[in-house]
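Example record for the data management plan.
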Amino acid sequence: MKITVIEPLGVEKSLLETLARKTAPDAEFVCYDSRTEDTAALIERGKDSDIIILANQPVTEAVLAGWQKVKLLAVAFTGVDHIPLAACRERKITVCNCAGYATAAVADLVFGMLISRYRNLEACENAVRTGGTKAGLIGFELEGKTFGIVGAGAIGCRVARIAQAFGCTVYAWSRTQKKIEGVTWTDLDTLLSACDIVSLHVPLTEETRGLINAEKL
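Corresponding structural encoding:
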């Protein structure tokens, strides 16, 4: 069996090699420390591999066709919209991802970006550094705002709880309704028209592509 890490994962190569020896001691393990977008180069990297590990490296159908031996694509990432899933299903290639690994981090970033925009943090910092004033930079408070969440998976649910802690009134829409205390479930159009803030947390699939378009905005 051959296992290939097709692109850098942000993890030390020595650690990956140690993990490979522990989990698959008899396997050949290859780890690339650079990315490439070249189709021929990607095919060459993975052509003899049974398992290919990647993060957000786009895989085209042409590349997948060149990986004749692959049985498993392990995606060290939450989304899999960069993988040709239909072609994988046709060839019975298993695709697994790392759902949940960045739930807290993504929710943190939602509010980091939101507060930065609402409170004009970048402009305020520039004003302080250049001897300016806060004129025109007062911004807004989150408390009392209506906060809409599109997609109530693990990340969406965490964002909902944090929004409530800030004093927001939270609305949610999702394909699967969940019970989240204090959250009002509604249809997408009502959510978009009622909310001051909308946070999008759905995977990019053929079903969700274009869910938020120019008309909705």
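Summary line stored alongside the record: Residues 2-96 form a domain with the Rossmann fold fold (CATH 3.40.50.720).
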